[in-house]
């Protein structure tokens, strides 16, 4: 008696599906690996840090958003997404941002949460604003409890007259 799958014409379909699946997995893994490498590059980190530092003071933790927030958000998207896109095009021929976004959307549970949050901040204004406010808060905490305090050397007042 012949195999039931062969009789119905399904012979080889399982292999095709698993082969396609492994190609998709490999493409996803390669692209996410490149993406992780790109966002960990010093140049990207400096770009993001400089942008956040330069613009975070504009943001306030209020319900109402200022018009300047939209302008800053658009600059953020252009700057970071542009950098990521250029680097991924160099690393993976045929790369498109829409392909990346589709892959991530389908398999977001497989993406590192920090990487996903950074990418989501490019597509979600609320997350972007939260990122700016968190950065501002961290920056203020680094300054200590006395922002704007000017320290003068005691030695300057102890000169002999």
Written account of the structure:
The chain has 161 residues and is mainly alpha-helical. 68% of the residues lie in helices and 0% in strands. The chain contains seven helices and no strands. It has helices at 4-7, 13-40, 42-55, 67-91, 97-106, 113-123, 125-142. Helix 2 crosses helix 4 (67-91) and helix 3 (42-55) packs antiparallel against helix 4. The longest helix is centred in the first third of the chain and has 28 residues, at 13-40. The chain starts with a helix and ends in a 19-residue tail after the last helix. Residues 13-19 and 145-159 have low confidence and may be disordered.
Succession of helices and strands? HHHHHHH
- How much helix is in the residues? 55-70%
Largest sheet: none
**Helix count?**
7
Structural class by secondary-structure content: mainly alpha
Low-confidence parts, pLDDT < 50 over ≥5 residues? 13-19, 145-159
Shape: elongated
Roughly what is the average pLDDT, rounded to an integer?
Answer: 81
Question: What share of the residues does DSSP label as strand, in percent?
Answer: under 5%
- The number of E-state strands comes to 0
**Radius of gyration from the CA trace?**
25 Å
Q: How many angstroms separate the termini?
A: 114 Å
Task: Identify the notable features of this structure and list them briefly.
single chain, 161 residues, mainly alpha, 68% helix, elongated, disordered C terminus
């Amino acid at each position: 008696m012949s195999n039931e799958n062969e009789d119905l014409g399904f012979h080889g379909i399982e292999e095709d599906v698993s082969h396609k699946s492994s190609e998709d997995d490999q493409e996803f893994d390669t692209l996410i690996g490149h993406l992780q490498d790109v966002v960990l590059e010093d140049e990207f980190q400096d770009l993001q840090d400089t942008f956040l530092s330069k613009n975070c003071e504009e943001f306030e933790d209020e319900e109402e958003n200022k018009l300047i927030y939209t302008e800053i958000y658009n600059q953020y998207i252009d700057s970071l997404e542009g950098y990521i896109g250029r680097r991924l095009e160099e690393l993976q021929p045929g790369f498109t941002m829409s392909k990346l976004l589709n892959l991530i959307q389908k398999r977001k549970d497989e993406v590192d949460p920090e990487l996903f949050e950074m990418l989501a901040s490019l597509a979600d204004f609320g997350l972007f604003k939260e990122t700016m406010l968190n950065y501002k808060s961290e920056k203020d905490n680094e300054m200590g409890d006395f922002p704007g305090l000017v320290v003068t050397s005691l030695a300057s007042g102890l000169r002999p007259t």
